[in-house]
């Protein structure tokens, strides 16, 4: 079977091959697909990842890709890595957290791939607005994810390209107001009863009793626990902000047992990894 992958006149990624029910089923899993009966071809929104996915899908067949398209994929892949590397350096210089950088890079990579045929610094607000519409309607992104993309693009344009208002007029999606699922005291107690590992139990109970995020929990040092005042010093929490939170009386006994069992001193991480020089 001969499979042709190319850009059609609309600028979409197109693929043409003899009828095959299994391949058609796989193609329909790609967002934004279209069937063109006259040209007898399938097409998809432009993107390097789409091309790579198609090549992978038809790896057992003879695939024909125009030389200019192969060259474009190669050049673009190198270009995207260079651009993302520069954006990464700027975020590190501005002291963004590793988690934020990871999220922004992922958002920007998808954005760059979507507009692979354009100079990003010249993309209009209307085109970006349509991109958000595509993420909401076709990709079914949640409002939280859309806001992450919004923040990543704002950084790209205002901080990297120094274009302050390119996406300023685009409305941000309203956040869903969902009530959390709250466990009963009996359910929480049942969870604790079924944890046999002392370190894991201490982590769960401390997290629950003091309202700690996972990142805040694992970054605790022994010296951050103030038993006398009943406080925990959280360093570099969300937004890289320090804060204090309560240390309840109910957790002090298990903390004492844990500290004695693991022979901790004031210079230790509270929850060490196998390498004692670093936390879990």
Q: What are the main properties of this structure?
A:
3-stranded antiparallel β-sheet; 10 helices; 280 residues
Describe the structure.
The protein has about 280 residues and is of the alpha+beta class. Helices cover about 50% and strands about 10% of the residues. The chain contains ten helices and eight strands. The chain has helices at about 20-25, 50-55, 65-95, 100-115, 125-135, 145-160, 185-195, 200-210, 215-220, 250-260, and strands at about 1-5, 15, 35, 40-45, 60-65, 225, 230-235, 245. A hairpin with an 8-residue loop joins β7 and β8. It is elongated and about 75 Å long. The mean pLDDT is about 85.
What order do the helices and strands come in, and which of them pair?
Layout: E1 2-7, E2 13-16, H1 21-27, E3 34-36, E4 41-44, H2 48-57, E5 62-64, H3 67-93, H4 98-114, H5 125-137, H6 143-160, H7 185-193, H8 198-210, H9 214-218, E6 225-226, E7 231-234, E8 243-246, H10 249-262
């Amino acid at each position: 079977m001969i499979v042709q992958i190319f850009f059609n006149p609309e600028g979409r990624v197109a693929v043409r091959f003899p009828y095959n029910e299994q391949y058609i089923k796989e193609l329909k899993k790609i967002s934004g697909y279209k069937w063109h009966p006259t040209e007898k071809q399938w097409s998809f929104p432009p993107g390097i990842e789409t091309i790579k996915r198609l090549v992978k899908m038809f790896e057992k067949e003879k695939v024909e890709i125009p030389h200019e398209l192969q060259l474009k994929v190669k050049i673009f892949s190198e270009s995207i890595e260079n651009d993302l590397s520069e954006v990464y350096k700027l975020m590190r210089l501005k002291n963004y957290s590793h988690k934020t950088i990871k999220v922004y890079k992922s958002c920007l990579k998808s954005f760059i791939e979507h507009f692979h045929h354009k100079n990003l610094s010249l993309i209009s607000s209307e085109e970006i607005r349509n991109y958000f519409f595509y993420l909401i309607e076709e990709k079914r992104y949640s409002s939280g994810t859309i806001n992450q993309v919004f923040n990543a693009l704002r950084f790209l344009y205002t901080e990297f390209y120094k274009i302050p208002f390119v996406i300023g007029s685009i409305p941000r999606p309203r956040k869903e107001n969902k009530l959390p699922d709250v466990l009963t005291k009996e359910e929480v107690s049942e969870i604790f009863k079924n944890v046999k590992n002392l370190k894991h139990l201490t982590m769960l109970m401390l997290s629950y009793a003091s309202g700690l995020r996972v990142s805040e929990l694992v970054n605790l040092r022994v010296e951050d626990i103030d038993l006398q005042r009943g406080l925990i010093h959280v360093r570099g929490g969300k937004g890289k902000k320090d804060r204090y939170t309560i240390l309840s009386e109910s957790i002090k006994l298990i903390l004492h047992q844990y500290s004695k069992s693991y022979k901790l001193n004031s210079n230790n991480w509270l929850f060490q990894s196998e390498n004692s020089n670093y936390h879990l």
